[in-house]
């Protein structure tokens, strides 16, 4: 009799922990997403071939060995509409744009792109990337989506033995675009 009660208590606790996420909404970014906790905001000006661009990032840092992922981050950058716009790009140009974004992320952390897949998000073509870094000690999953002239980058970082976990899927699948 004690075993079923113990299992019921454990199951209830795990269920509460899994569902105890926050819905974060950015009016300026026109999106919402679920994260384990409300994220911290960081803004950074990037010097690019398209001029100075502002990256707006929202991140939650987890703890290694405790949390499924040690980082959850969503960022967006607005490009000049006359320079970068998904509505005016052919597929080949869009693919090169996404690959450039992933290569930039990989090189900034001395990482290596180990997988790439096409994805469709709300009718927009995007890309999923896997980037191994820290000599294989960490794995970043990144999804990039260009909506008009705004690129969204969703990222998680996990230890190799916990890659492709349910929390990553929840994070990526919870992303929603908000209406203007």
Task: Based on the model shown, name its key terms.
180 residues; Protein Transport Mog1p, Chain A; three-stranded antiparallel β-sheet; disordered N terminus
What does this structure look like?
The chain is of the alpha+beta class. The protein has a single domain, classed as Protein Transport Mog1p, Chain A (3-Layer(aba) Sandwich). Helices cover 24% and strands 44% of the residues. It contains 3 helices and 10 strands, in the order αβββββαββββαβ. It has helices at 2-19, 91-108, 166-173, and strands spanning 22-26, 31-35, 40-48, 51-61, 71-78, 112-121, 124-133, 138-147, 150-158, 176-177. A 7-stranded antiparallel sheet has the order 3-4-5-9-8-7-6, sandwiched between helices. A hairpin with a 2-residue loop joins β8 and β9 (150-158). The radius of gyration is 18 Å and the shape is globular.
Question: Could you give a quick summary of the protein structure above?
Answer:
By secondary structure, the protein is an alpha+beta fold. The chain has one domain (22-177): 3-Layer(aba) Sandwich (Protein Transport Mog1p, Chain A).
What is the C-alpha radius of gyration, as a whole number of Å?
A: 18 Å
Low-confidence stretches: 1-18
* CATH classification, class level: Alpha Beta
CATH level-two architecture: 3-Layer(aba) Sandwich
How many extended strands?
A: 10
Q: What is the CATH H-level superfamily?
A: Mog1/PsbP, alpha/beta/alpha sandwich
Task: Profile the largest sheet.
Answer: 7 strands, antiparallel
Q: What oligomeric state do these chains adopt? A: single chain
């Amino acid at each position: 009799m004690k075993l079923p009660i113990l299992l019921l208590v454990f199951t209830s606790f795990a269920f509460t922990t899994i569902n105890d996420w926050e819905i974060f909404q950015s009016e300026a970014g026109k999106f919402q997403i679920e994260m384990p906790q409300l994220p911290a905001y960081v803004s950074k000006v990037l010097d690019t071939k398209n001029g100075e661009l502002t990256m707006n990032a929202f991140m939650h840092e987890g703890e290694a060995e405790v949390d499924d992922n040690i980082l959850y981050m969503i960022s967006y950058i607005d490009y000049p509409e006359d320079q970068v716009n998904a509505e005016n790009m052919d597929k080949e140009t869009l693919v090169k744009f996404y690959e450039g974004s992933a290569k930039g992320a990989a090189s900034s952390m001395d990482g290596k792109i180990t997988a790439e897949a096409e994805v469709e998000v709300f009718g927009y073509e995007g890309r999923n990337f896997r980037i191994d870094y820290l000599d294989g000690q960490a794995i970043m999953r990144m999804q990039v989506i260009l909506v008009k002239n705004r690129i969204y980058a969703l990222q998680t970082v996990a230890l190799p033995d916990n890659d492709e976990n349910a929390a990553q899927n929840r994070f990526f699948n919870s992303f929603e675009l908000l209406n203007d």
